[in-house]
């Protein structure tokens, strides 16, 4: 112990050790007892360890990198000696090893990763997650038992490298193409429960909701079998649906805001998409539509769900959403606000699958994502067995109006190089969508598998991050008092995730691209005024509520 401490001490800068001495000199302890020396050394080690780890990415154990395939930037191999020295310190959780890289400045968000996982027992949020939780659903109802999860390391620190190795070797990989084995493995790992697919008329606050009003025809869908893209729209956005489905090729749950006279064109648009367009089979197979409207803005007539599609749409007529400006909407005429978070929550709550990608309908994912994601879940690598709750954010990009949407990361990188693509909202609100390690992400080459590239936190520069991610039903809802016009509509959810100590497992080969056309900042006086009001609402009402409901955590902000 002392020798390690001394070695580490020498490694520290003069400044640090001076600072340390100055703090302790006033205690006036001339007697340099062995005990004191040990104490000092151990404090020094702790500080050194924290600084050291703080400047590095922290995921996974060293043993699993064989199957990890480089999810951890590029720097994993070098540092065996230093890592073993650090393991001697009792501060370090055993299954974690830092991956040193001296050139990086230390990011606050990475320090917190360490602080959070090292002191898991004293964290209120961590206490809420049972130790046996392995994947995703850590706040949810149906948690897997420790024994049911293959390769579960259980309580922090109980793993040993021998069992780790064995786990990876004996059941690490799904043979590509072996759908049945993949299916079986994901099913047993998730242990999720099936959800209702009934058509229901519900009330939700001031809104009527027609849940599962028009259902996808995918037949029986088990909760572990896919991921549901959940989103919200009015009918003028439905031109996005087919391009989105061509890439997603999996279930979509859409909540349509259709007050007053918007109801009929909304229903007509759904019919049009199911009957009249190329790609309509995708719509029929995968798209489930919910309709909702304010209680003060009920349409003149609302067919029962079983009658909704009885009369077909005349396919010789143009699409109901073709060339309709948003000024034509009932919503605009009545000066209603768009209740974006009501829609988001309806779509999410109706999703049949365990995993959900809550997104905006103009954001198109790269093709093949669902299968690769489930394969990643099936591999159940070390980082997926971490105890903290997690979501899987996707990097987001915009492309030129005339550009095609890139299909894979390699193509995306080419577009980024020649300026056809840029990071999302770079010209509107860079820090709202800036993803930790985005430069490194963009530089890293595409790999065959999907993995976690980096584990970040919503702190430091990313404290206002509004990530879009694959999560589960267990994640906090979106605050339904916030409107699209008032902006900041995902901020409070982001804050809740931060307070609940969520980890953001950024995926390496997954991304979203906005419908072509790069956004620029436009002056909009009404929105500016509403945004001001929203900020007040958040500051005076919602934030104090969240502090009571979820507690506080250093480094988190709205
Ligand atoms: C590895 O696991 C297998 C069963 O999956 C077991 O028979 C074997 O003894 C284990 N090996 C070690 C080194 O733990
Ligand atoms: C469909 O619309 C076209 C164009 O308006 C019209 O000529 C045709 O008669 C309509 N068909 C039916 C069955 O209403
Ligand atoms: C779209 O609508 C505008 C005005 O409503 C009209 O001037 C324009 O010709 C329409 N465009 C097409 C392609 O129909
Ligand atoms: C990334 O891919 C490019 C083109 O295939 C190649 O030239 C480059 O060496 C690769 N970089 C790394 C770090 O593997």
Automatic annotation (TrEMBL):
Residues 83-105, 119-143 are annotated as: Disordered. Signal peptide: none annotated. The keyword Electron transport does not apply. Pfam families: Glyco_transf_49. Keywords: Membrane, Transmembrane, Transmembrane helix. Residues 83-98, 119-133 have a biased composition (Low complexity). The chain crosses the membrane at residues 37-59. This is Beta-1,4-glucuronyltransferase 1 isoform X1. The gene is LOC117566054.
């Amino acid at each position: 112990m002392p020798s390690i401490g001394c070695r580490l001490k020498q490694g520290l800068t003069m400044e640090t050790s001076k600072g340390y001495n100055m703090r302790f000199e006033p205690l006036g302890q001339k007697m340099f007892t062995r005990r004191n020396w040990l104490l000092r050394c151990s404090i020094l080690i702790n500080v050194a360890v924290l600084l050291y780890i703080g400047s590095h990415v922290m995921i996974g154990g060293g043993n699993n990198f064989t199957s990890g395939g480089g999810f951890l930037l590029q720097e994993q191999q070098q540092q065996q000696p230093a890592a073993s020295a650090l393991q001697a310190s009792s501060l370090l959780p055993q299954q974690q090893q830092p991956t040193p890289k001296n050139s990086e400045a230390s990011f606050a968000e990475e320090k917190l990763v360490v602080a959070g996982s090292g002191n898991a027992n004293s964290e209120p949020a961590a206490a809420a997650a049972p130790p046996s939780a392995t994947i995703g659903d850590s706040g949810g109802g149906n948690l897997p038992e420790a024994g049911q999860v293959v390769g579960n390391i259980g309580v922090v620190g109980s793993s040993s490298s021998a069992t780790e190795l064995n786990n990876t070797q004996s059941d690490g990989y799904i043979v590509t193409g072996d759908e049945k084995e993949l299916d079986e493995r994901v099913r047993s790992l998730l242990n999720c429960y099936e959800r209702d697919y009934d058509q229901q008329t519900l009330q939700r606050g001031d809104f009527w909701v027609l849940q599962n009003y028009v259902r996808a025809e995918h037949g029986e869908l088990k909760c572990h079998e896919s991921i549901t893209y959940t989103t919200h729209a009015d009918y003028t956005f439905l031109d996005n649906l087919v391009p989105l489905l061509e890439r997603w090729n999996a279930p979509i749950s859409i909540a349509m805001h259709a007050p007053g006279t918007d109801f009929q064109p909304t229903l007509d648009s759904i019919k049009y998409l199911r009957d009249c367009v190329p790609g309509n089979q995708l719509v029929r197979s995968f798209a489930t539509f919910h309709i909702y409207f304010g209680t003060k803005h009920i349409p003149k007539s609302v067919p029962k769900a079983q009658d909704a599609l009885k009369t077909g749409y005349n396919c010789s007529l143009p699409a109901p959403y073709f060339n309709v400006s948003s000024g034509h909407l009932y919503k605009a005429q009545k000066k209603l606000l768009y209740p974006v978070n009501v829609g988001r929550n309806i779509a999410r709550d109706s999703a049949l699958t365990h995993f959900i990608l809550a997104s905006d309908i103009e954001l198109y994912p790269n093709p093949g994502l669902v299968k690769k994601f489930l394969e990643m879940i099936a591999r159940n690598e070390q980082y997926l067995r971490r105890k903290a709750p997690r979501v899987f954010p996707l990097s987001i990009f915009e492309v030129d109006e005339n550009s095609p949407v890139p299909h894979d990361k390699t193509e995306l990188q080419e577009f980024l190089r020649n300026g056809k693509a840029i990071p999302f909202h770079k010209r509107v609100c860079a820090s709202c969508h800036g993803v930790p390690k985005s430069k490194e992400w963009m530089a890293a080459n595409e790999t065959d598998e999907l993995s976690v590239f980096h584990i970040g936190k919503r702190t430091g520069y990313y404290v206002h991050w509004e990530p879009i991610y694959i999560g589960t039903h267990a994640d906090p809802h979106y605050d339904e008092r916030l409107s699209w016009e008032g902006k900041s509509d995902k901020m409070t959810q982001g804050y809740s995730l931060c307070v609940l100590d969520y980890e953001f497992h950024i995926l390496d080969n997954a991304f979203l691209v906005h419908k072509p056309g790069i956004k620029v900042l436009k002056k909009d006086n009404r929105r500016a005024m509403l945004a001001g009001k929203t900020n007040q609402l958040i500051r005076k009402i919602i934030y104090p509520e969240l502090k009571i409901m979820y507690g506080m955590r250093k480094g988190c902000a709205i």
